[in-house]
Design goal:
With 345 residues, the chain is an alpha/beta fold. It is built from eleven helices and 15 strands. A seven-stranded mixed sheet has the order 2-1-3-4-5-14-13, with helices on both faces. Strands 7-6-8-9 form a four-stranded parallel sheet, sandwiched between helices. Strands 10-15 form a two-stranded antiparallel sheet. Helix 4 links the parallel strand 3 and strand 4. Helix 2 packs across helix 10. Bound molecules: alpha-L-rhamnopyranose. The site of alpha-L-rhamnopyranose has 12 residues, from helix 8.
Length: 345
């Protein structure tokens, strides 16, 4: 019922904005000048997540530097319902394009379809929506590259054998599904990992309290556990806090924000090393991509290229059957560089 209400609300909002938007654009056409820059929205996974805030900062800065207007619409929590409301709220504002970091690969598709039907272009960033709901996805790094970096870190830090667990975020977020599936694939197909045992994949939904509860349960339920691998900044901080509070010998790696993890890092510390990318740059890539789509520089088809202040990017095939643009490779953070990067993000 709730989803139906949301969908009806969104249709109403769409109808309003179609007439309002048309009025606006038709009016501008009469003035022969189309407004400089355009209006572009970013809908992160949720509020209260420093990673998402850094992404939003990068998005906003890139749009404004290009003379456009940026609208950031944070869902109150990392859920589908909250994100549907956030998408609806930007439609009222006559945007030209929307960039979404999705909490669920498929559940936003009906709402996004209504946005696309109104002539508003859509791309995803960080965590994809399904290919039919996006013109292209802006990916932080290759799925295999991230999964391999994490599995090799688990192999190295455990000394090559023993039990480890994964603390993920939302069970239906595309980025988490892709990374965890590829980690499982590597574990099953590459014999170098054969002495590692993945005992559980837990889900903290990128909610700090739920993630802490899940980390506590992992420590409680697996007394032989050697390591937690958290492919989410929220899960990383939650795990570090729990391991520290419980003075556990369990080690940690994953995808963490230097600013959040610096006090837990060191050769003999809870987290010897971890990985991430620059969320400001990822948000900026989302901005340059949605602007290139709205300005008809690209359509999102494989093989297209476009340039921006961060360099030249090529649209390529994505593992989910759609297309994507890749920001770069994951960075490795350890005690030698985490302090410096903690000043940046
Ligand atoms: C969290 C979110 C985000 C992911 C990072 C690594 O902030 O789940 O989608 O990319 O962690």
């Amino acid at each position: 019922m709730k989803k139906r209400v949301l969908s009806v609300l969104l249709c109403v909002a769409m109808t309003f904005s179609i007439f309002a938007g048309c009025g606006k654009k038709d009016e501008m056409a009469e003035n022969t000048e189309i407004a400089e820059g355009g209006t572009y929205a970013f809908v992160p996974k949720s509020a209260d997540n420093a990673f998402n805030e850094k992404e939003a900062e990068g998005f906003k800065k890139a749009v404004e530097a290009a003379g456009g207007t940026a609208i950031i619409s944070y869902p109150k929590e990392a859920t589908v319902d909250a994100q549907l409301l956030a998408i609806e709220s930007v439609i009222f504002q006559g945007v030209d394009g929307v960039c979404i970091a999705a909490n669920d690969f498929e559940a936003l598709s009906v709402a996004i379809g209504e946005v696309q039907d109104a002539g508003i272009k859509v791309c995803s960033v960080d965590s994809a929506v399904e290919p039919s709901s996006r013109l292209v996805h802006c990916n932080q790094a290759g799925v295999n590259e991230i999964a391999k970096a994490l599995m090799d870190a688990v192999l190295d830090i455990t000394g090559g054998e023993g039990q480890f667990a994964v603390l993920s975020s939302e069970a239906k977020a595309a980025n988490q599904i892709a990374w965890v599936d590829e980690m499982r694939n590597l574990l099953e197909t590459d014999s170098k990992y054969s002495n590692l045992e993945l005992v559980e994949v837990a889900y903290g939904d990128d909610d700090s309290e739920k993630s802490k509860d899940q980390a506590k349960k992992l420590l409680e339920n697996y007394p032989e556990l050697k390591m937690i691998c958290a492919p989410t900044t929220v899960g990383m901080l939650a795990s570090a806090e729990v391991i520290s509070e419980q003075e556990s010998s369990v080690k940690l790696t994953g995808l963490g924000l230097p600013s959040e993890m610096k006090d837990y890092m060191g050769d003999d510390a809870i987290c010897p090393y971890m990985f991430l990318w620059n969320p400001n740059d990822l948000g900026a890539l989302g901005a340059y991509t949605i602007m290139a789509l709205c300005n008809d520089e690209i359509t999102g088809a494989e093989g297209e290229t476009f340039s921006c202040t961060m360099g030249e990017y090529t649209v390529q095939a994505a593992v989910d059957g759609g297309t994507e643009i890749i920001l770069g490779s994951p960075y490795k953070f350890d005690s030698s560089n985490v302090g410096e990067w903690a000043q940046v993000y």
